[in-house]
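May I ask for a single protein's sequence together with how it folds?
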Amino acid sequence: MQRDLFAAEHEDFREAVRSFLADTVVPHHERWEHEGIVPREVWKAAGALGLLGTDMPEEHGGGGQRDFRFNAVLDEEIVRVGATGLGFGLHNDVVGPYLRELTTPEQKQRWLPGFCSGELITAIAMTEPAAGSDLQGIRTHARRDGSDYVLNGSKTFITNGINADLVIVVARTDPDAPGSRGLSLLVVERDMPGFTRGRNLDKIGLKAQDTAELFFDDVRVPAENLLGEENRGFRHLMTMLPQERLSVAVAAVAAVRAMLDLTIDHVRSRRAFGRSVGSFQNTRFELAELETEYWVTQVFVDRCIADLNTGRLSATDAAMAKWWATDLQRRCADRCLQLHGGYGYMTEYPISKFFLDGRVQAIYAGTNEIMKEIIGRSLELDGH
């Protein structure tokens, strides 16, 4: 089966991405995994090649292409080479829409050029020690004091947390509002007094990605750094989350393709009992199932990308794509590692890295259990 999602300009972009990764990333990624972070110079190199902010306005240094297919190409190629330390997906796919859609003209002038050049690395801080997928449990709070908000609280598991220059912080600005109401989005900048970073967290996978704890102790955030409308933060989040979840799905199905290719190559060359492992019926059946599931999933995800581009992607469809693709990624990693035998358990074999790096996919951007809840609610099963 052939994919028909991409046009010639996307494939040209893919070639540029592959060259960048081969020259600037792949030779160094193992060292970055030991160091736990990707150097900032890599972000600037990506920005210089136009890999960041492809959908941002040209007048602010972006590519001027409101087309998620460019994002998908970058995500797919990063996954293909196992460059999971690069936080470009979080920057482009997740934070980018907030800065593109919610910023004032003055904020755009301040932030978007650096966003596109790689000089301003971004993060978004939703998760807290006691509030993950349940945003209603957010305790980080900010009170208005003159021309500032005074921000207090903490966040955890924040991708790009060490490198980030701009952090969109979800905070409660109306303490009397129930549940998810009364939340706002405040942009905290690197050198604001009272903003500190904790540990670069030690994870079982994604070793080169800086994932950190963030702390806010009476941080004075100028009112000019309010993103969108005060106390409408939850609505802003719900508007942007479908693209974030689709981004996760794109990476997941790309990982499935990469793992299948690795495993097919391995079972063709590996011999047991005098014949190739690929010649056994169990191997054929395992890979036949996974290959079929891959294509079914890829077609659905590609349709979601097309729907996002035309403004038709629903929260329910994004939730379906996210949970199904990441669940397939998890199952594929387990089965492909098994087909590698003992070699699959060795870190020198790429399948082991896919196994470890991919496990978090079913957790972040809303756990897969939350995705099923979103889908279930759309069915109106309670009769109301």
